[in-house]
Amino acid sequence: MDFLDKLNKQQRMAVTAGDGPVLVVAGPGSGKTRVLTQRIAYLIAEEGVRPWQILAVTFTNKAAKEMQERVRKLLPDQAIEGIMLGTFHSICARILRREADHLPIESNFVIFDSDDQERLVKSVIRELNINEKLYRPASVHAAISRAKNELIDAEHYPTTTYRDEVVKRVYAEYQKRLIASNAVDFDDMLVYTAKLLEDNPSVSDKYAQRFRHVLVDEFQDTNLAQYALVKELASHHKNIFCVGDPDQCFPAGTQIQIPNGSRKIEILKKGDQVIAASGRGSTMVSQVSHIGKRVFKGNLVKAITQSGHVIKVTPNHIVFARLGMNQGLHYVYLMYRKDKGYRIGIASHARSDGNGLKTGLQVRGNQENADKIWVLKVCRDRAEAHYWEAFFSTTYGIPTLVFHVRGRRMRMSQEYIDKLFNEIDTDSNANQLMTELGMDLRYPHYIPQGTFRNIVNLRYFGDGRITEESPWHAHRVDLWSSDPKLAKQLKELGFNPRIRSRNNWRVGINRLRYDDIQISAQKLSEAANHAEIVIGAFLVDKGKSSIAQKFNLMPASHLHPSMIVAIMKDGKIIEDEIIEISHEPYQGTVYDLEVENLHNYIANGMVVHNSIYAWRGADWRNIQRFEQDFPEAQTILLEQNYRSKQTILDAAMGVIDRAQNRRRKQLFTDRGKGENIFFYEAPDDYAEASFVVDTIAQLVASSQFEPGDCAVMYRTNAMSRLLEEAFLQARLPYRLVGAQRFYGRREVKDIIAFLRLVHNPADEASLDRVINVPPRGIGEKTLTTLHMVARQKDLQPGEVLIDLARGADSPYWSSFTGRASISLADIGGMLAAWRIAAQTLTIPELFDRILSDINYKEYIDDNSEEGEDRWENVQELRRLALEYSTRTLDEFLENVALVSDQDTITEGNVPTLLTLHAAKGLEFGAVFIIGLDDGILPHSRSFDEPEQMEEERRLFYVGITRAKDKLYLIRAIQRGGRGSFEEAYPSRFLDDVPADLLAGRTRTGRNLRGGVPESRWGATEGSAETKWSLHTRPKTASVIESKYRAGTHVKHPTWGEGIVLDSRIQDDDEIVDVVFNSVGIKRLSASLANLKII
Predict the structure, then answer these.
(1) What is the mean pLDDT of residues 267-288?
(2) Given 3-state DSSP classes, what are the helix, strand and coil percentages for the chain, each rounded to the nearest 5?
């Protein structure tokens, strides 16, 4: 295992870690991807793990491909054959196709890209007669996507406004259309897989047992659904290995600028006002929207500026900085060129090109046609620079040789220069160099920006103008190029390239909102063949200069003396120079802020960026979730971070320390001891639910918590029924718990749509796209009629289309005009023929057959330069099809559709009701765990299964550790069961909670088996009216007998046959829960429903 020799101590510890959960919290430049890929190689070569027992997931196809290539460099192909390595979406697609019997869709489902999804939403909005101007399809679709990522379906979509009601209606119909089209969107792939694993234990067990090791890259970027997936897949062997970045933070004591002075960062709270840079030298007041906090042990970067500002920060915190220009200094740099690799060199800090001073890196970069440059050292003289150049080169095996001989007198020819860079693994060596310097390859100090490079420039506060409508300088994205083909491509995709000079053009986009400009930059990059995005910010006024100076974003570990940073002085943002960089050890709590709109703040006088992950849809709590869900996990580099009060942690440890085969581990917090845990024993399960609702109302009325800070957790979904009724009777609200196409060009999307339609005629989006391609006289009116006829006959338009191929014999023929009927029959006949042919033809043969039948070449290639380009695109797609000659159309279509796409998650301010399984690492101020009876928690199924009993214990532990400030443990003396009450016994897990941590006593006056202090009893029977108050609830009077028992078969005049799930007497009526074959679960009043027992 030679590759282990190149690892540092921490990397080797991670790569060779033993079985069990491992969290590698890695700072910038610490070789995260390297650790993960070498972990895979180590498991196969040293631990004897079979390749097919390894699952490795990441976010983008590019990252997955890079990971595969790195593993192949370490092991022969036959040793790694069978590894399941890919993006979340591609892996979900594989699982869903294999397990389609459990899904509402067939195994040949298609994947709608972002255009298809938005088109479908737009169609639904129009058919529901909703004002499209008020409810834009993109906005409505974004809301649906966010709900799906929170695992909220249409039925449970929370509605607090009329807009929510509209979104809910569209969501429901959108989902029906997807299923009818046998299609999924990107979010469905995650949601369906999560539900599949949660609802089907046999399926979950099959995959969990197969994957002995689950590895996750860029863990900090995962959202809730993705975290739930990897956790479920690792549930059997518990060998989950996650690699991610820590939060970027400042130590306690850092002064944050506020409107009337400054305040220590640890004192700030959500909603406080802070001062932020608003562009071009200006500042304005903004609001803190989130505060992050964690424990840190390591070296902080300490920077001192010329004006005396001192800032201490974790090495990965993003700051605004740019290169200075001092003719007396010299750089030692690492340079990268895509076709060569990496080299080490030196350059003057600043040099003249005859027109003024330029940084030496600019001159060197242009000479070498470099792509990126990183500064390794800033030296006082050239002799010191030569020393460090030789040191880095010989220590890490990176050449100092130039990339080319052009215009130079060289002893070595270009042939041997190329040979040298081909034979030296400069990629691995550069990674090792940057890792040991604590730097991050994602943040170069300099990127040459010639127009031929097609770089997307994202510039915060890039708009020099400011208006009343835009209180801060708007952000800007620009792409300059001289490539005419790229200009045509972007124009087809809806962008507006504007000619700036004879050979140059530009696409420019302004957006006021931070999130909007990020999305715009990403879309432009994807449309421009994944062009590089370079981010900067215009923080200072340009003064007398012709152009303003741009600051780059970079980690604090990249700062060097002589670099320029932005500071605040007299309410203005000005430049300052760093004169000293050092490192200072620190152990304690560190903090970060999320600032609305402007996403920066002033720390110790310096402008810094805030959390960088929120806009990408990541859930910042997932590292905490991992630590809490896997308390026995080994965390490498950083210690665990717990947010609960110490009393709650001690209770959790009392429970989990009784687990078998677990070494004891002390959890600690810096949040103080906290209140004792409140125990309540209710007379029955109705009183249990009432106690929860009453107590939450009191907590909110007394301003101790917001409604959204409260959560009620239970072992099984069935336990939510009484809770929901209690909330409803109290009239209080509650809550039950992007994308880039593979090709975006018109002609490529056309052919893919034809193939998708052959694969799945129910695919409406594809049908609508190509039904008139090439033009065959089918207009908007005919297409609308086709949809209407299909809806009236409860069919899909594709089915009607195929039937029309029978001509006048088709019952739908008369619904269309003569010309339209013939045109529809023509395409319907071809579609039917293609579907038959697809059973025997290979994908390339089917591809050619479709092109030939529709004369697509004649349509697309008009002998112009543009036509030739389009036909070349079609041929490029055919070359991809050739790679699938021995594979299925399913696999081909999946490959051209899959991308990663995440959206941000929002939550309403209402209490959350959820199962312990669904908690998934969430955290709440006040947590109520109900149903603490033997047979419920632990579940009766675990009584004779030690492993299941341990899982039940872990669930209880998870529930306890969701609470930050208050925890309520609740049980009932008796519970209703099929018309009668059964005596319940306290959960055996309650014995493990230390008695001195509990307050309260049983309603009957009994103490818990461990003995509960009686001095803290404080349950209140009622509560006063408040703004979030309890209304008077009618008393239940059971004066009639139950007629419908659980399991009874019944028939409803509208919904047909069903089975009774539950029944109870309420308000002189019998309330019956029935699951119908046609519509699912319905709750009915027996006196009104006209149910018949069959």
Answers:
(1) 91
(2) 40, 25, 40
Whether 770 and 804 have beta carbons less than 8 Å apart is answered as no
Task: Give yes or no for a contact between 480 and 456, defined as CB atoms under 8 angstroms apart.
Answer: no
The pairing of beta strand 282-305 with beta strand 310-313: antiparallel
Strands 505-511 and 475-481: antiparallel
In the predicted model, is pLDDT for residue 633 greater than 90?
no
How does pLDDT run across 790-846, given as a tens digit for each residue?
988 889 999 999 999 888 889 999 888 878 889 999 999 999 999 999 999 999 999
Q: pLDDT digit string (tens) for 760-775?
A: 999 888 999 999 999 8
Buried residues in 875-891 as b, exposed as e (16+ CB within 10 A): eebeebbeebeeeebbe
Residue range 904-910: mean pLDDT, rounded: 47
Q: How many CA atoms lie within 13 A of 131 on its CB side?
A: 3
Interval 983-1030: pLDDT, tens: 788 999 998 898 888 887 554 444 444 333 332 222 333 333 334 444
HSE toward the beta carbon, residue 653, CA cutoff 13 A: 16
Give, in degrees to the nearest 5, the angle at Cα 312 between 310 and 318.
Answer: 110
CATH fold for the domain made of 456-531: Endonuclease I-creI (3.10.28)
The superfamily in CATH containing domain 646-740+905-1008 is P-loop containing nucleotide triphosphate hydrolases (3.40.50.300)
* CA–CA dist 390, 392 (Å, integer): 6
Residue owning tokens 């899982």: 951
The DSSP secondary structure of 653-664, one letter per residue, reads: HHHHTTSTT---
3-state secondary structure of 165: helix
CA 103 – CA 101 distance, rounded (Å): 6
The pLDDT of residue 1014 is: 31
For 287-317, give the DSSP string.
EEEEEEEEEEEEEEEEEEETTS-EEEE-TT-
What sign for the dihedral angle of Cα 568, 573, 575, 578? Answer: positive
Question: Is 0.70 surpassed by the pTM of this model?
Answer: no
The per-residue pLDDT for 180 is 93
Per CATH, is 1-105+196-248+615-639 categorized as 3.40.1190.20?
Answer: no
Given CATH 1.10.486.10, say whether it is the number of domain 743-899.
Answer: yes
What is the structure's pLDDT at 618?
A: 47
**Residue corresponding to tokens 């697509």:** 856
Cβ atoms of 303 and 565 closer than 8 Å: yes
Identify which of 958, 962, 913, 920 has the alpha carbon closest to the alpha carbon of residue 937. Answer: 958
Alpha-carbon gap, residue 102 to 154, rounded angstroms: 20
1041, 1015 contact by CB (below 8 A): no
- Please state, in angstroms and rounded to a whole number, the distance separating the CA atoms of residues 438 and 557: 6
Distance in angstroms (rounded) separating the CA atoms of residues 807 and 153: 42
Report the DSSP pairing between strands 456-460 and 372-379: unpaired
Contact criterion met (CB below 8 Å) for 865 and 55: no
- Taking 80 as the threshold, does the pLDDT of residue 141 lie above it? yes
Retrieve residue 913's tokens. 């009701």
Pick the CATH number of 250-321+549-611 from 2.170.16.10, 3.30.2350.10, 2.70.70.10, 2.60.40.1840: 2.170.16.10
Kindly tell me if the per-residue pLDDT of 1040 is higher than 70: no
Q: Are the beta carbons of 463 and 538 closer than 8 angstroms?
A: no
Plot region of 789 (φ>0 → left; ψ -120 to 50 → alpha; else → beta) = alpha
Which are the contacts of 818, defined by CB distance < 8 A and separation ≥ 6? none
Q: What is the pLDDT of residues 401-438, one digit of tens each?
A: 999 887 777 888 999 999 999 999 898 889 878 877 88
Quote the CA–CA distance of 516 and 514 in Å, as a whole number: 5
For the stretch 741-761, pLDDT in tens is 334 668 888 999 999 999 999
Domain 110-181 matching CATH 1.10.10.160: the answer reads yes
